[in-house]
Design goal:
single chain, 206 residues, mainly alpha, 2 domains, 7 helices, 0% strand, elongated
């Protein structure tokens, strides 16, 4: 009796040795038409092994790529798709550049800085800009209190906003009224308690 461990190493173990044996048999078929018919049968069997992936885009294309890989790219048939090239199989993806841009205040985050830049792009004063600036200031206060569990004076938020906008957004304390610190902290506590309750409920349901 021959054990699987004695056979050659599987290129794609997820398909199993029987599929690999079918691919090896297909490679040995001399008639090109019969070889293509055999390849089609193997693809159907491979697809039936993972029915939950049939809705994935290019699922069939992926199967034909896998067949070519298991055949070590030696299967001489007319593929219905452009198959991945052997030299591209182990090539590394392009390096993703890391964003090294400096964040002045980490508790506000980079996205908020970008939104402030957007707000400074409004040339004319108007209701739309006023609402946006008010939303930004309140979000800054909420972010500040998320990381600093204490009350914060609105003047601190206004000062930080003026600094982050390079002096282009200067808020009047009489005009802009932010949400009270106690209301934000209470809301944050309620959200934390709700999340904890959900976690506890899910543990009990296991």
């Amino acid at each position: 009796m021959k054990y699987n461990t004695e056979g050659k190493k599987l290129v794609m173990p997820e398909y199993g040795r029987n599929i690999q044996n079918m691919v090896d048999y297909c490679l040995a078929i001399e008639d090109r038409t019969e070889r293509k018919r055999c390849a089609d049968t193997i693809i159907n069997i491979m697809g039936n092994m993972f029915p939950h992936l049939r809705d994935v885009n290019d699922f069939k294309h992926i199967l034909w790529d896998h067949l070519a890989i298991m055949a070590d790219f030696k299967l001489d048939i007319d593929y219905p798709y452009e198959i991945i090239k052997k030299e591209d199989l182990h090539s590394r993806p392009p390096r993703i550049p890391y964003n090294n841009s400096r964040i002045r205040y980490r508790h506000y985050g980079k996205t908020l800085e970008l939104m402030i830049d957007k707000a400074t792009g409004f040339e004319e004063e108007g209701e739309e800009k006023k609402q946006l600036v008010n939303l930004l200031a309140n979000h800054m206060k909420k972010s500040f209190l998320t990381w600093n569990k204490e009350s914060v004076d609105d003047r601190k938020i206004f000062k930080d906003l003026e600094e982050l906008s390079k002096g282009k957004i200067v808020l009047d304390e009489e005009v802009y009224k932010l949400t009270e610190s106690r209301d934000i902290l209470a809301r944050n506590n309620n959200n934390t308690n709700n999340n904890n309750n959900k976690k506890n409920y899910s543990r009990k349901g296991r």
